[in-house]
């Protein structure tokens, strides 16, 4: 089985029951918490996962109503190699728990000038599309993708799967061999992509994944050029049952490994007394040997720990760049929604204004870039016969006021924009409707300022500049999830859980 260490240590997950006899509480059941729980239980620990809500999965919750089933959070299944590696550690495969369908097209783009593009698994089609916008763009695409693939392979092995939490961990021959990858940290994605493509639409296509990393082309390091390899080479899939099916699969694996789950068990305080933890929940108190928090990092520090056991002050969190929040509109609709694809992006021809209203001068976007997901295109179990299931997601600044009046006004803006730019008029066909936005993220997930994703991937918040897995103030307290390394996204959180488990194992061996 695979075995990778925390930091540059040679110990870690995969050793024979190094945590036998240890009890560990995992706070939160997002993908970081589920992953950590599996690795810790596999190492012999007695693991209990404490989940605030009635469902497992954190932001990857689902809700069902009137025959419709909606994924509330993640909806793009990418980086299948990470899921294969995760299940492979336990001698399983993803398909032991859920099926996968590769999407074609991977996604569709509507530009607001009336243009439309499909990005498919057919690389010749993609090259032809790029060439149609700019002479020489097909060859530039090949060069960009080759660079993206090499960056991905080097970055995943040396910086993502290997945790380097301290400066001395970077003084390593592996790091020096990856100097070209490291240099990509020193420029923005905007500058990097413009070296290959001049046409603004091609630049947008190569940069759209930054929305899912919680950044903008101006503030995200060019290291994330590797996401184009993920997009075009590794492909985009749909898991059977949506992301709820992935949550159920990992939870089933965890139970097979001996993990216990408690839902409706919101943690209200974490303290240490005479060297022992007391983890208070609304349902009772636990006394584990160690705690791994997959709850929002800032919430854990500022709300669950006493002041003298916090690593960071309130001002530290005020100075962080949070990833966007979102305005989500979940819709059950009569009839079909052609020409929308399973994944559809609707982009202004100039999206700088939208990013400025997220990161520079926070406001509800006047001309939004947004994402539409229509799982009923692929999965006929998510909507009743003769109906479509879709949601619209508009990235917005965290901390915005999202009063009922504001939501209603913006709902009209989004529906009008969809009709104007995709030709799909939804207004008179809606039979089920729910919104979810800033205040809901804050209330349901204890998310700071209602961020949908966590800590943005800026240069100052990448790699060892993200908060650590080990608490520097409290022995035996650890963190996992999107605030830690390697960062935002379901695959990254799976790896984060491994890093946190490695830290526990190294410290308790």
TrEMBL record:
<dbReference type="GO" id="GO:0016117">
    <property type="term" value="P:carotenoid biosynthetic process"/>
</dbReference>
<feature type="domain" description="Amine oxidase">
    <location>
        <begin position="32"/>
        <end position="505"/>
    </location>
</feature>
<comment type="pathway">
    <text>Carotenoid biosynthesis.</text>
</comment>
<dbReference type="InterPro" id="IPR002937">
    <property type="entry name" value="Amino_oxidase"/>
</dbReference>
<dbReference type="Pfam" id="PF01593">
    <property type="entry name" value="Amino_oxidase"/>
</dbReference>
<keyword id="KW-0125">Carotenoid biosynthesis</keyword>
<dbReference type="InterPro" id="IPR036188">
    <property type="entry name" value="FAD/NAD-bd_sf"/>
</dbReference>
<keyword id="KW-0560">Oxidoreductase</keyword>
<dbReference type="GO" id="GO:0016491">
    <property type="term" value="F:oxidoreductase activity"/>
</dbReference>
<dbReference type="InterPro" id="IPR014105">
    <property type="entry name" value="Carotenoid/retinoid_OxRdtase"/>
</dbReference>
<protein>
    <submittedName>
        <fullName>Phytoene dehydrogenase</fullName>
    </submittedName>
</protein>
């Amino acid at each position: 089985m695979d075995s990778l260490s925390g930091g540059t240590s040679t110990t870690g997950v995969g050793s024979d029951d190094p945590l036998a006899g240890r009890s560990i509480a995992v706070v939160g059941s997002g993908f970081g918490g589920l992953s950590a729980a599996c690795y810790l239980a596999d190492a012999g620990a007695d693991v209990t996962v404490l989940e605030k809500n009635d469902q497992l999965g954190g932001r990857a919750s689902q809700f069902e109503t009137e025959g419709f089933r909606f994924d509330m959070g993640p909806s793009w299944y990418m980086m299948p190699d990470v899921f294969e590696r995760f299940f492979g550690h336990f001698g399983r495969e993803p398909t032991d728990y859920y099926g996968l369908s590769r999407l074609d097209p991977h996604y569709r783009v509507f530009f607001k000038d009336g243009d439309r593009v499909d990005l498919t698994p057919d690389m010749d089609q993609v090259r032809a599309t790029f060439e149609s916008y700019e002479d020489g763009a097909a060859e530039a695409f090949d060069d960009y993708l080759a660079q993206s693939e090499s960056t991905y392979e080097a970055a995943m092995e040396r910086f993502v799967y290997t945790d380097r939490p301290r400066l001395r961990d970077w003084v390593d021959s592996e790091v020096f061999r990856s100097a070209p990858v490291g240099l990509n940290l020193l420029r923005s994605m905007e500058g990097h992509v413009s070296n290959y493509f001049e046409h603004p639409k091609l630049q947008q296509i190569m940069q759209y994944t930054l929305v899912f990393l919680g950044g903008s082309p101006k503030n995200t390091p060019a290291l994330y050029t590797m996401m184009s390899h993920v997009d075009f080479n590794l492909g985009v899939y749909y898991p059977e049952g949506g992301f709820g099916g992935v949550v159920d699969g990992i939870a089933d694996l965890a139970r097979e490994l001996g993990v216990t789950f408690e839902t409706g068990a919101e943690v209200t305080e974490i303290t240490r007394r005479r060297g022992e933890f007391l983890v208070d929940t609304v349902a009772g108190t636990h006394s584990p040997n160690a705690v791994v928090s997959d709850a929002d990092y800032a919430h854990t520090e500022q709300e669950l720990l006493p002041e003298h056991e916090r690593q960071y002050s309130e001002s530290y969190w005020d100075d962080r760049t949070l990833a966007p929040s979102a305005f989500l509109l979940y819709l059950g609709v009569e009839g079909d929604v052609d020409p929308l694809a399973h994944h559809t992006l609707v982009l202004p021809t100039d999206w700088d204004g939208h990013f400025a209203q997220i990161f520079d001068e926070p406001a509800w976007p006047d001309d939004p870039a947004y994402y539409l997901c229509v799982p009923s295109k692929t999965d006929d179990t998510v909507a009743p016969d003769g109906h479509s299931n879709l949601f619209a997601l508009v990235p917005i600044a965290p901390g915005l006021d999202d009063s009922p009046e504001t939501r209603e006004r913006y709902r009209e803006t989004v529906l009008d924009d969809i009709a104007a730019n995709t030709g799909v008029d939804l207004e008179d066909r809606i039979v089920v409707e729910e919104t979810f936005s800033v205040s809901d993220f804050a209330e349901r997930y204890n998310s700071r300022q209602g961020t949908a994703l966590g800590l943005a991937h800026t240069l100052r918040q990448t790699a060892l500049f993200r908060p650590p897995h080990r608490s520097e103030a409290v022995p035996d307290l650890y963190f996992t999830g999107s605030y830690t390394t390697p960062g935002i996204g379901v695959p990254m959180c799976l790896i984060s859980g491994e890093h946190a488990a490695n830290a526990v194992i190294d410290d308790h061996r």
